[in-house]
Amino acid sequence: MVVKTFRGLLADGAQERIKLQTSTGKVGYRIVKLKLIPSAPGVVSSENIVKVYNEFQSSIDGLVDFADSALLGASYYNANTSGGDVDFTTVVFDREIFNQDIYITHSDVRGSGSANYYLELEVIPLASDEAAITTVKAMRGLAVD
Q: How far is Cα 16 from Cα 36, in angstroms, rounded to an integer?
């Protein structure tokens, strides 16, 4: 399995484009892993939500809606500096295959901190017909099987 990795630091309310699109669309991707950690863990209380989409988001918020066909995965991290447990969970829709650029967003619903993300994508060769179907579904905003 060939894997591409991406990492970065997102400010609260930020969105980053991850360029994946090729001229033929014959390279597909599937999310293998999505991790996040605040930029100042243990120093600042934060409640971070990082989401991965297959289309640009006109607004960034802390809501997670699994019915949103553009959503490819989400990760949540909650830490309080006054003590207590750290809560985190990640859900990726690992059957979703895409061949266009993706967008990763971050929202700190408790404050205004930044968060680091780490993303692993499995590289999947696509036949011409698979590439065409995947591209058309992405353009129409449909979930890709």
A: 14
3-state secondary structure of 78: strand
Q: In the chain, what are the domains?
A: 3-140 (2.60.120)
Backbone phi, psi, residue 56, to 5°: -60, 140
H/E stretch holding 137 reads helix 128-140
Does the pTM surpass 0.70? The reply is: yes
pLDDT digit string, tens, across residues 86-110: 788 999 998 899 999 999 999 999 8
Which contacts (CB < 8 Å, 24+ apart) does range 82-91 have? 82/45, 88/36, 90/34, 90/35, 90/36, 91/66
User: Tokens 């390279």 map to which residue?
Assistant: 27
